[in-house]
């Protein structure tokens, strides 16, 4: 954390926004969203037994509509909130101090995202280092193996689970390696664009921001194809035991973040074309760049621990 | 900046960007949840007054213990501290408001919706198989394979609470790092601010991990994954590891701000500066760091390798060192002080003594061999209620008495405040002290029935619990009475020995926007 040495001015012009209806819209939106999501999940999976004509059954049938409504409110909120923030920034309402607040806030948000991925990486490492050897009888677990799952072969990737579900593993070379190259390239193109922004080179800025977003789209396309290949050719699904679980949860949440980052970059490209950013005032651009680099670094960890090792 | 314009009515609260309004909403929300969670605790104590089953079906009893824990942890204690942070941090660092005011209001307003979602699970027509009943720790497979339908809504409720906590924590850190008055270097910050910065860091680090844990629960329940199922190559014990990686820092999230509060109140009423300020800061940071590396002491009985148990035992005991530093600093602050015993001081003293008691039973629980006896007994219940009720809750109550005159401009009724204190402290010990004995004798937690021989201890606990619960209504009356005028006007300094920008630089009641001009801190 940067030591607060330059905080010697008079922070009396700190912009405290007027009353805003955005937070309450967002809260209602999130509530409707998760209410719908819960009912949708319960309605589409068979884990919950519901009597015909009962209230839970009705709620489950409403799930898709409530979920859609919730998504619409949340998307509206995001558009509204960030366009408000962008307008305030371009109206020069933000002091240098508020700019620092936004930057630090974004860094801490990315920190929290890192910890979200840490939970799933933790699950992966715990499974590889602890669970699988134990199920194979290591340590004091010889009887677990001998009595419960004598046929279980403790190898990673777990291509045959203790209860006998089988799958094939996804190799690292091929699509994953190409995707690694694409993401690394995209970080490079984004840095070129960022330097162009600082050097007031608008054409390069716009071009390379679009290129970066385009590389994100290609990555997502290849990832979708890889999933299709996994499901149809390899028999590797989300339900294929711990290997499939960690594979799809980690790459899936990463893919979700790439999607968010790509949308972020597309919005930034449009804003670049409209001339929203100056070399001095472009917090949104930097936030997007930081987010993209974060997504890139997560992928490197994925490539090493999910695919290669 | 909004000058002199005071919005009124419901819009003031729904649309506000003011740290004081948001702080008030957090505190009232917290108190409401405190009463709901408290009513559930009384339901538990009612059943446990006698052995045998009198009032509730066993499953509903499990629901009561689960919901009581969840509501108190996520609904009462955490929002209470966020409310205090909102009220106090801008005033204490000389800022006009929190750094990100709109996000501040967003993080509050998510909470009532999240708890509506959680409490909906108690509505039988919606959830015929009942509310969450697997304990507030929601261990797999109880919560995955055997969880009722309402578990999914509980999962999403936890997601919402996490979003709220992370946004609140980001706001606190950014405010403190970026909004301090000129001259207020890090090592001149008030202790409450320090403890909250560290708490916010813990929140940012562990709330996402909790979100990950409940997400894996959701996919295990509905999408065919087997993270917590050995048949698919997972492990239910892994749930406990992930949960407690969140859960142990979480218990410090629920106590560090109370440490900060005690570090303000004790110096004021001892009329001496805080002893060992720097060591207090470093001790708090050490506790926070250690909280990340001790989580498996909650799981000594699951069958970890012995080396793991040894490590987690020793690491856990090390926490007693920085905690001891804090306790001795508070005692040294009082040493040769000119002490008076106003209500905040009484609660702060009770906090120091009774929190220490809970801490010491924690050291006992940290010992692996003995924990194998204590695990899941009422001894554990006694331990964590001693650190939570006289710790976190007394800390919050002390803070409210201490700063209420500054917030409202009025003095509360000191006599009734003392009555509230004495009822609370007698009742809290009557409720939780006998649990040590019943636990050591082998009474298990989370069971609605028990052996005849525990009846005496349980009856004491139940009588104490009702006394404790109802004496908090006196607190409610005192706060409302104070807001409406109380015992006359408070001075700007409020307390003779009070230090800090909020007492020395702001009038009572504090203005709507704290510092329009940044004060100079020498």
Number of helices of chain B: 17
Q: Please tell me how large the radius of gyration of chain B is.
A: 23 Å
**Count of strand segments of chain A:** 0
Distance between the termini of chain A: 34 Å
Question: Fraction of residues of chain A in helices?
Answer: over 70%
Q: How many individual helices of chain A? A: 8
Main interface pair? A-B, 84 and 91 residues
Structure characterization notes:
The complex is a heterodimer of chains A (309) and B (522). Chain A has helices at residues 22-44, 55-90, 96-135, 142-148, 175-198, 202-234, 241-273, 283-308. By secondary structure, chain A is an all-alpha fold. The longest helix of chain A has 40 residues, at 96-135. The radius of gyration of chain A is 24 Å and the shape is globular. Chain A starts with 21 loop residues before the first helix and ends with a helix. By secondary structure, chain B is mainly alpha-helical. Chain B has helices at 9-14, 19-47, 58-93, 101-120, 151-178, 191-222, 236-253, 256-270, 277-291, 306-318, 320-334, 343-366, 368-374, 378-408, 414-440, 455-483, 501-504. The longest helix of chain B has 36 residues, at 58-93. The chains are: A mainly alpha (309), B mainly alpha (522). Chains A and B meet through helix 1, helix 2, helix 3 and helix 7 of A and helix 1, helix 4, helix 5, helix 6 and helix 7 of B.
Layout of strands and helices, then pairs:
The complex is a heterodimer of chains A (309) and B (522).
Chain A: H1 22-44, H2 55-90, H3 96-135, H4 142-148, H5 175-198, H6 202-234, H7 241-273, H8 283-308
Chain B: H1 9-14, H2 19-47, H3 58-93, H4 101-120, H5 151-178, H6 191-222, H7 236-253, H8 256-270, H9 277-291, H10 306-318, H11 320-334, H12 343-366, H13 368-374, H14 378-408, H15 414-440, H16 455-483, H17 501-504
Helix pairs in contact in B: 2-3, 2-4, 2-16, 3-4, 3-5, 3-14, 4-5, 5-6, 6-7, 6-8, 6-9, 8-11, 8-12, 8-14, 9-11, 11-12, 12-14, 12-15, 14-15, 15-16
């Amino acid at each position: 954390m940067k030591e607060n040495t330059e905080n010697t001015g008079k922070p009396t012009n700190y912009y405290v926004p007027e009353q805003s209806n955005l937070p309450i819209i967002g809260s209602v939106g999130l509530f409707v969203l998760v209410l719908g999501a819960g009912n949708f999940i319960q309605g589409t999976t068979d884990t919950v037994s519901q009597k015909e004509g009962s209230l839970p059954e009705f709620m489950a049938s409403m799930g898709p509509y409530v979920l859609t409504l919730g998504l619409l409110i949340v998307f509206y909120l995001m558009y509204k909130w960030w366009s408000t923030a962008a307008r305030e920034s371009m109206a020069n309402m933000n002091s240098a101090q508020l700019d620092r607040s936004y930057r630090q806030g974004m860094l801490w948000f990315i920190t929290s995202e890192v910890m979200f991925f840490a939970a799933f990486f933790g699950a992966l490492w715990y499974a590889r280092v602890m669970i699988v050897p134990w199920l194979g009888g290591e340590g004091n677990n010889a009887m677990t193996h001998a009595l419960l799952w004598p046929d279980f072969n403790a190898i990673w990737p777990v291509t045959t689970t203790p209860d006998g579900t089988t799958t094939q593993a996804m190799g690292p070379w091929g699509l994953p390696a190409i995707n690694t190259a694409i993401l690394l390239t995209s970080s490079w193109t984004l840095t070129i664009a960022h330097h162009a922004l600082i050097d007031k080179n608008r054409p390069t800025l716009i071009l390379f921001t679009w290129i970066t977003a385009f590389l994100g789209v290609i990555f997502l396309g290849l990832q979708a194809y890889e999933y299709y290949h996994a499901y149809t050719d390899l028999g590797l699904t989300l339900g294929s035991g711990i290997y499939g679980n960690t594979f799809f949860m980690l790459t899936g949440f990463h893919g979700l973040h790439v999607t968010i980052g790509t949308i972020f970059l597309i919005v930034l490209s449009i804003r670049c074309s409209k001339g929203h950013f100056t070399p001095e005032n472009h917090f949104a651009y930097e936030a997007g760049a930081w987010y993209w680099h974060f997504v890139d670094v997560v992928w490197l960890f994925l490539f090493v621990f999910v695919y290669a090792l | 900046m909004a000058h002199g314009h005071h919005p009124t009515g419901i819009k003031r609260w729904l649309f506000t960007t003011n740290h004081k309004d948001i702080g008030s909403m957090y505190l009232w929300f917290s108190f409401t949840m405190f009463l709901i969670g408290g009513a559930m605790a009384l339901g538990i104590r009612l059943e446990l007054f006698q052995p045998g089953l009198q009032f509730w079906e066993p499953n509903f009893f499990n629901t009561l213990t689960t919901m009581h824990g969840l509501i108190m942890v996520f609904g009462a204690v955490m929002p209470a501290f966020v409310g205090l942070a909102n009220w106090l941090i801008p005033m204490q660092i000389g800022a006009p408001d929190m750094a990100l005011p709109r996000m501040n209001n967003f993080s509050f307003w998510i909470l009532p919706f999240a708890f509506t979602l959680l409490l909906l699970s108690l509505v039988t027509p919606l959830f015929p198989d009942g509310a969450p009943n697997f304990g507030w720790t929601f261990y797999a497979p109880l919560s995955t394979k055997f969880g009722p339908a309402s578990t999914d809504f509980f999962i999403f409720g936890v997601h919402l609470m996490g979003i709220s906590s992370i946004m609140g924590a980001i706001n606190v850190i950014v405010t403190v790092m970026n909004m301090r008055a000129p001259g207020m270097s890090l090592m001149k910050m008030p202790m409450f601010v320090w403890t909250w910065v560290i708490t916010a860091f813990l929140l940012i680090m562990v709330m996402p991990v909790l979100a990950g844990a409940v997400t894996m629960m959701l996919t295990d329940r509905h999408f065919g994954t087997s993270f917590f199922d050995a048949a698919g190559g997972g492990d239910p014990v892994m749930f406990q590891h992930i949960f407690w990686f969140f859960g142990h820092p979480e218990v410090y999230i629920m106590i560090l701000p109370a440490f900060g509060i005690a570090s303000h109140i004790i110096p004021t009423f001892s009329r001496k500066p805080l002893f060992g300020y720097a060591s207090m800061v470093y001790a708090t940071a050490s506790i926070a760091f250690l909280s990340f590396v001790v989580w498996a002491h909650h799981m000594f009985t699951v069958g970890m390798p012995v080396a793991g148990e040894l490590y987690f035992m020793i690491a856990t005991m090390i926490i007693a060192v920085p905690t001891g530093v804090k306790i001795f600093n508070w005692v040294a602050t009082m040493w040769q002080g000119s002490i008076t015993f106003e209500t905040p001081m009484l609660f702060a003293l009770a906090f120091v003594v009774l929190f220490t008691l809970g801490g010491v039973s924690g050291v006992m629980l940290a010992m692996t061999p003995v924990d194998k006896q204590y695990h899941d007994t009422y001894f554990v219940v006694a331990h964590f209620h001693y650190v939570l009720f006289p710790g976190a809750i007394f800390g919050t109550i002390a803070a409210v008495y201490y700063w209420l005159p500054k917030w409202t401009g009025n003095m509360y009724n000191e006599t009734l405040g003392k009555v509230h204190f004495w009822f609370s402290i007698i009742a809290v010990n009557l409720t939780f002290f006998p649990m040590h004995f019943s636990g050591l004798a082998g009474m298990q937690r989370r069971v609605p029935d028990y052996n005849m021989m525990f009846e005496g201890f349980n009856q004491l606990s139940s009588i104490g619990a009702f006394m404790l619960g109802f004496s908090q209504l006196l607190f409610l009356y005192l706060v409302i009475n104070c807001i409406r005028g109380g015992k006359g006007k408070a001075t700007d300094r409020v307390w003779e020995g009070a230090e800090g920008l909020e007492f020395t630089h702001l009038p009572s009641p504090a203005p709507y926007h704290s510092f329009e001009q940044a004060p100079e801190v020498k």
